[in-house]
Amino acid sequence: MLSNKRIQELELVMEFEKVEECFKEVSSWIENVGRKRLKETINLDDSLEMLLQAQKQFREFDLVASEYCRRGQEALKKMDRWEDFSSVDVQSYRVKLQSYKDQLEEFCNQLDENRHRICETVRLYEFFDKVR
């Protein structure tokens, strides 16, 4: 049984190394592109026209960002089996996995928040535009 468990752990390590390439790509995109673009959406313009333009640009970014989030989440699902293993040999991989998971979760949540904030701001500006 111990031998079988060790073999399973080794198989997981090999699987992790295959999936890690995807994690690295997603992580790199989040750090080099995604976070910068999200910061750009913090300050929204004061006119409805400029806000609609910013929303359009955000939607284009959102399509790409959502694809990276999806790819990262799919890679994480492949690694769900890590929860069952607690050996010291696997611990460093679990730490890396948790780091990727935290980074992806934080970015996806920020993306959702910005999407919602921009949408609500546009709706508010459209309402005030109609009232005038």
TrEMBL record:
Origin species: Smutsornis africanus
Keyword annotations of the record: Coiled coil
Gene: Plekhg4
Protein name stated in the entry: PKHG4 protein
Gene3D superfamilies hit by this protein: 1.20.58.60
Coiled-coil region list: 90-117
Signal peptide from the UniProt entry: none
